[in-house]
Amino acid sequence: MSTDADLTTTINYVTMQINRHAVTILILFGTVGNILNICVLTENTLRKIPCAIYLCWSSVSALVFIWSGLLTRVLQGYNVNWPNQNPYMCKIRLFLLSVSWAMAAWALVGASMDRFLCSNHSAIYRGWSTCRTAKRYLIGILTFFVLLFAQVFYCFEASVPNVPVACYGRDLPCRIFNDWISISVDIVIPSIFLAVFGTLTIRNARPRVVHPRISSIQVAIASNINNNNNNAAPSRNNDRNLTRMLLIQVCIVFVLDLPFGVYRAYASLTANVSKSTYRTATENLTYAVVILLVYFTHSTSFYLYTLTGTLYRATFKRIRDRCFNRGQRMH
């Protein structure tokens, strides 16, 4: 018995340290990274590219998601649990968290769809890759998710016992509904869309060898076509850079978000089961680790983009040099 009690104490201590330190580091990295993302993606060289609009909205949503979800984890590490015990704070926080998580995921879906459209060989499909389409899509999904998660104000309550976090569904129907909404809307369906459109984009990017019969008229305008292709080369390079950046983030989101969906379903189904202190401690530790994985995907996009995107690095370097020169002039 004493061995189990000691092990439980150790597990609780590890969970507390994760909430105190690992989560704090993730908040700092995520906040700095997403703010830098917004600065880079709103630069003149990128702001008129539809994919950059999607990624910028994803970063803004990720900022809200990080602070609405992780701040309470840090406070829990210091045994401060009032946001989850206050009924108003509980509902508002969960509403912001739910909408922002969905927006961050589906903005990436929009970016993946845009990469497919702009890389398509059909001019009709490429015509849909516009800033106007991006803005309409983002406003549309924001409206949809606000309406979808309005039920949070009814379903969630503060100080719910025997669950990973005190701010939780009030009863089993609410828990099952919200868990399946989270699993499907935030994880499974976006992952399917990301995988499908990522695969289609890669297929579009493959070079095609075409041997057309060239007429005299085509020969006459060949020089003009070459000039247009040379002018379009920077745009194609930008597209390839953004596509590579996005596909890498898609893979990370797909792998790291799935454990959370599995655990949420397990937590809801066992909420009314009597649990030992050892089992409760183990589940709390598992939840703390799973939470880190989910928020990691939305906290490291800036660092991934910097490593994988030459256009992104060049834009960031230009902003950094401009700020540095401005600081020198002020001194």
Automatic annotation (TrEMBL):
<keyword id="KW-0472">Membrane</keyword>
<dbReference type="InterPro" id="IPR017452">
    <property type="entry name" value="GPCR_Rhodpsn_7TM"/>
</dbReference>
<dbReference type="GO" id="GO:0016020">
    <property type="term" value="C:membrane"/>
</dbReference>
<feature type="transmembrane region" description="Helical">
    <location>
        <begin position="246"/>
        <end position="266"/>
    </location>
</feature>
<feature type="domain" description="G-protein coupled receptors family 1 profile">
    <location>
        <begin position="33"/>
        <end position="305"/>
    </location>
</feature>
<feature type="transmembrane region" description="Helical">
    <location>
        <begin position="137"/>
        <end position="160"/>
    </location>
</feature>
<feature type="transmembrane region" description="Helical">
    <location>
        <begin position="286"/>
        <end position="312"/>
    </location>
</feature>
<protein>
    <recommendedName>
        <fullName>G-protein coupled receptors family 1 profile domain-containing protein</fullName>
    </recommendedName>
</protein>
<feature type="transmembrane region" description="Helical">
    <location>
        <begin position="180"/>
        <end position="202"/>
    </location>
</feature>
<keyword id="KW-1133">Transmembrane helix</keyword>
<keyword id="KW-0812">Transmembrane</keyword>
<dbReference type="InterPro" id="IPR052954">
    <property type="entry name" value="GPCR-Ligand_Int"/>
</dbReference>
<feature type="transmembrane region" description="Helical">
    <location>
        <begin position="20"/>
        <end position="40"/>
    </location>
</feature>
<feature type="transmembrane region" description="Helical">
    <location>
        <begin position="92"/>
        <end position="117"/>
    </location>
</feature>
<feature type="transmembrane region" description="Helical">
    <location>
        <begin position="52"/>
        <end position="72"/>
    </location>
</feature>
